[in-house]
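Internal tracking record. Fields below are filled automatically when a chain is submitted to the structure queue. Please do not edit lines marked as system-generated. If the sequence contains nonstandard residues, flag them in the REMARKS field before resubmitting.
Queue: standard
Priority: normal
Entity type: single polypeptide chain
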Amino acid sequence: MGIQSAAEHGLLRNRPFLTLWSAQILSMVAANALTSALIVLVAELTRSNTSSSILILLAVVPVVLFGILAGVFVDRTDRRLVLIATNALRAVAVAVILVIGDSLMAAYLVNFLVASVTVFFVPAEAATIPSIVRKRDLLVANSLFTFTFNGAFLLGFIILAPVFLAFAGFPALFAVIVATFGLAALLCATLPPSEPATEAIGVGVAGEAVQRSRRDIGEALRFLPGQPRIAWSLVYVAVTYTLIAVAGALAPGYVREVLLLPERAVALLVAPAGIGVVAGLGILNLAGRRLGGGRAVGYGLGSTVAALLVLAGARPLALVAGRAAEGSGLAGLPYFIGLVVITAFVFGIAYAFITVPSMTLVQEELPDVIRGRVFGVLNVLVSVFSLLPIVVVGPVADIWGVAPVFLGSAVLVLAAWIAGRRHRAGASARNVARDTGAAS
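SYSTEM-GENERATED OUTPUT FOLLOWS
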């Protein structure tokens, strides 16, 4: 449905859009296959939730260190060159593990290097979309990018990585990832250059660059309080991405300790969530305008709270199912696994309902001259939200289990749902008025 809508809007005849879209697919497949491989590698080496938390933490720290500066850099640089360089550098970073070999320290190092480069890739890609797509087509373009983002997630995380690990091993998979990042860099080289919003930062004048960066960062931070709808949209995206980071840290231990399955069975959680995202995108494409962005986000937040509460009762439910079943204590486990799969599917739908309308509103209403800086703020906001939870969730899960982690996450999402309710209602009302005016 997303592809059909894109064709109707002429996006499939837009060569720069097709190029960026193809490069996104390749880079996301590679990135997700790498994440899957490193999560499995660390889990098999350590069998510890805390070690998995450290792996995810090393992907977050670079965003805290460089996130807003990356947005400033993107606004003052040809974004095409940023996209080329970031894909090429990620290929080089992954090649490091082929030289060092499979080990815990190699996994940590590669994860940190790739995350550091991705800090610059994310705002460059997000800020490029509005410059090559008409404003009225942004919703469809973002839906298509999110659709393929999650399709690439399924392909990389659930298909490519597990298949290569099962039949060829870690080195072969890492070699394929290096080649895929390299091909994405070549595609980005065919994009049209973009004019920087302001003059380039002088490399040789470090003091001037620091002062300019501080001024630009201050402009972005002063801009957001006066735009509450944009600010709350960024908060929703940050909360959602935080939950993804927490899930990534806990998923291997969850399937091992709660579902009583090996770590590589993490696809049982990830696959239904990815399918749920695709289903959510289909619903948004069919009824997004009638539903309204604010209302869709509200439904997504409420569904996320419900899903987290179900997961919070994971261990007690598993014990009850085992005790209630006749015969073996594991006889009730398949029913519990089915409940978890359905819950992951609902979470995927909720993810689409939150992120797509939020990102669309941000891209529609941001001026081009400040867009990169605000996306840089978004990256830092995501990192600030997720830094403490990621540090805490591993040890908490190792000591007390997953229930306190998911319960705390449900409380966080519920707080965001309540606090931003007024602005979501206003956004939905404005969307209805706008669509009614356009129809008349």
